[in-house]
Design a protein that fits this description.
Length: about 110
């Protein structure tokens, strides 16, 4: 009888977690730093610094959707930062803001 009670109790206390879109994150404000480093308008395609010299190259593709999960979102700024080939967020010495922590291999695109 205890097993049935626990199973019913467990099922009655489980609830779906709300879907978080655009939730707070460490360094989220770095998305706005493009204004200080971009010498051109943001576009949907970009190449991160150091790409040509990297032995291993990575291509990242995707779509950003509205909260309904179906409608493509336009005008969204996506900030990306990446480690170098030894797993470090390398710096060149002139970084500012979140670039001091995220390194120089970073970039922004706009959908």
């Amino acid at each position: 009888m205890t097993i049935v009670f626990l199973a019913v109790f467990e099922a009655s206390t489980c609830t779906a977690q709300p879907r978080l879109v655009g939730a707070p994150c460490e360094g989220c404000e770095a998305v706005h730093e493009y204004r200080d480093v971009a010498d051109r308008p943001l576009t949907p395609v970009d190449t991160l610094p150091g790409f040509d010299a990297a032995r291993q190259k990575m291509l990242l593709r995707g779509r950003i959707f509205m909260p309904d999960g179906e409608t493509p979102a336009s005008g969204v700024i996506l900030y990306v930062h990446h480690t170098n080939e030894v797993g470090e967020y390398a710096t060149l010495g002139d970084e500012f803001g979140w670039g001091r922590r995220h390194g120089y291999i970073r970039g922004w695109i706009r959908t």
